[in-house]
Design goal:
By secondary structure, the chain is an alpha/beta fold. The protein folds into 2 domains: 2-250 and 456-476, Aldehyde Dehydrogenase, Chain A, domain 1; 255-438, Aldehyde Dehydrogenase, Chain A, domain 2 (3-Layer(aba) Sandwich). Helices cover 38% and strands 21% of the residues. It has 15 helices and 23 strands. The chain has helices at residues 39-55, 63-79, 81-92, 96-119, 153-166, 181-193, 207-216, 229-239, 264-276, 296-307, 328-343, 379-382, 398-406, 421-430, 463-468; strands spanning 2-3, 5-7, 10-12, 19-23, 30-35, 124-127, 133-140, 143-147, 170-174, 200-202, 222-226, 245-249, 255-258, 288-292, 347-350, 369-372, 389-395, 410-411, 413-417, 435-438, 453-454, 457-458, 471-478. A 7-stranded mixed β-sheet has the order 15-16-17-14-13-19-20, sandwiched between helices. A 6-stranded mixed β-sheet has the order 10-9-8-11-12-22, sandwiched between helices. Helix 9 links the parallel strand 13 (255-258) and strand 14 (288-292). Helix 2 (63-79) packs across helix 6 (181-193).
Length: 490
């Protein structure tokens, strides 16, 4: 497969002619080559997006007209769902059951949700005592730079693309250089449905070049980034040059709290899903498990027993439960964290190594790993590992667990498992996190905001808030006829 950039309605190579190999992380095989762009390619795309926005070719369309394009994209995506799910698995390493049942369906729902939302927006107006009128309207921001990560390549791209286009903006998107395949297939659909040239642009290349140009450019009015907190901080600094709008969905070290009155096996099952889904490469992963001391030892033992039975391998097979990490560099980072945990004195309960048997040596696989008897001073407890590594702590009571859960620079997600609903609501209300669950984990809905507290980000994706972050708000005050103010005597 040959993947190129899509700029101003045309498929183009990088200006330098440079290309990059795209690897299947489960097999190490080259599955595609992609154009490898730089700052200069980003500048060309930004210029096209600026021209398209200023012309009004997209922003001047009615909400209903833009919605029709989004519906067409959703319909074509649905028609190609099986193909794109297979490609997503091959490029990202995640299991086919996830791409088939989560990633692609949620992406389809997201386009349709924002199409419905903009069609249903109502004008807000107020009539004053002097018979004048105030109208509140929402307008597109302008050119939006979208920078998305490799863990959910298509879905997280759509979480930004759909509301940005729905609002009337033009976009330049940069997917992660290691996972460009599914976004490339989406842009084939964008071309097919006939969105005007320059409205949607795809630039491929490293974040240090393409992403930085999107953040720094004074012709970009808004940048939306999903990824690590350190990179998010760099984008904030770069975006300050023209005070561009920013929204950042960043890292997490999210707690899953288990009280001793739960259905034991159900809680174990949810704790496993919270951390081992997508091999732990989820911003909201339940990477910190806090278990009440009365069931702590039994819970850790059962969790390790089940984790050791997780079927790990090439995600293209339906029976596989956990796939590969997305690239070799990241795998080595995860293994480094595991080594750090051992050196700091955490108890390694299971896993803790790269998996190489039965042909897995060709890919980037790490065994489901659990550390017990940890404390909040350890790196593996404080820092986001972004892999299949769980740390387990015991707690005494509500006060103790709330203190431990909130002792983090992050505040993306959290969950409470208990049969006592009053207690569940009390604890959830005290969690400093933007996404919370009671007796479930990882469920996400396109109509509900997704964002975090503290260093987990700024703003929210999804829901009506996700649309508002791509719009400016304007106040219009109307008097039918001008009249003297009467303020001055002469």
């Amino acid at each position: 497969m040959k993947i190129n950039m899509f700029i101003d309605g045309e498929w183009v190579e990088a200006l330098s002619g440079s290309r990059r190999k795209v690897i299947n992380p489960a097999t190490g095989e080259v599955i595609a080559t992609s154009a490898d762009g730089s700052e200069e390619d980003a500048k060309v795309a930004i210029k096209a997006a600026r021209k398209a926005f200023d012309s009004g070719v997209w922003s001047d369309l009615s909400a209903e007209e833009r919605a029709e394009y989004l519906y067409k994209i959703a319909n074509r995506l649905e028609e190609k769902a099986a193909e794109i799910a297979r490609l997503e698995t091959a490029n990202n390493g995640k299991v086919i059951r996830a791409t088939t049942n989560v990633d692609i369906p949620v992406s389809i729902q997201c386009f349709r949700y924002y199409a419905d939302l903009i069609k249903g927006m109502k004008k807000e107006s107020y009539t004053r005592a002097d018979s004048s009128e105030t109208i509140i309207i929402h307008e597109p921001i302008g050119v939006c730079g979208l920078i998305v990560p490799w863990n959910f390549p298509l879905m997280l791209a759509v979480w930004q693309i759909a509301p940005a286009l729905a609002a009337g903006n033009t976009i330049v998107i940069k997917p992660a250089e290691v996972t460009p395949v599914s976004v490339f297939k989406l842009f084939e659909i964008i071309e097919e449905v006939g969105i005007p040239a320059g409205v949607a642009n795809l630039v491929l290349g490293p974040g240090s070049k393409v992403g930085n140009e999107l953040a720094e450019s004074h012709d970009v009015d808004k940048v939306a980034f999903t990824g690590g907190t350190k990179t998010g901080q760099n984008i904030m600094h770069a975006a300050a040059g023209n005070m561009k709008k920013i929204s950042l969905e960043l890292g997490g070290k999210s707690p899953l709290i288990v009280f001793d009155d739960v259905d034991f096996e159900t809680a174990v099952d949810n704790a496993m899903f919270g951390i081992f889904h997508n091999a732990g490469q989820v911003c909201s992963a339940a990477s910190r498990l806090l278990v009440q001391e009365t069931i702590y030892d039994k819970f850790v033992e059962r969790l390790a027993e089940r984790a050791n039975k997780i079927v790990v391998g090439n995600g293209e097979s339906e029976e596989i439960e956990m796939g590969a990490l997305t690239n070799e560099t990241h795998m080595n980072d995860v293994l480094h964290y595991i080594k750090s945990g051992i050196e700091e004195g955490a108890k390694l309960v299971c896993g803790g190594k790269r998996l190489t048997e039965n042909g897995l040596d060709r890919g980037f696989f790490v065994a489901p790993t659990i550390f017990a008897d940890v404390n909040n001073n350890m790196r593996i407890v404080k820092e986001e590992i972004f892999g299949p590594v769980l740390v387990v702590q015991k707690f005494k009571d509500e006060e103790d667990v709330i203190q431990k859960a909130n002792d983090s620079i992050y505040g993306l997600a959290g969950a409470v498992f208990t049969e006592d609903m009053d207690r569940a609501k009390r604890v959830v209300s005290k969690l400093r996190a933007g996404i919370t669950w009671i007796n479930s984990y990882h469920l996400a809905y396109v109509d509900a905001p997704w964002g975090g507290y503290k260093q987990s980000g700024i703003g929210s994706a999804l829901g009506s808030a996700g649309l508002e972050h791509f719009m400016e708000t304007k106040q219009i005050n109307i008097h039918q006829h001008a009249k003297p103010v009467g303020w001055y005597a002469n």
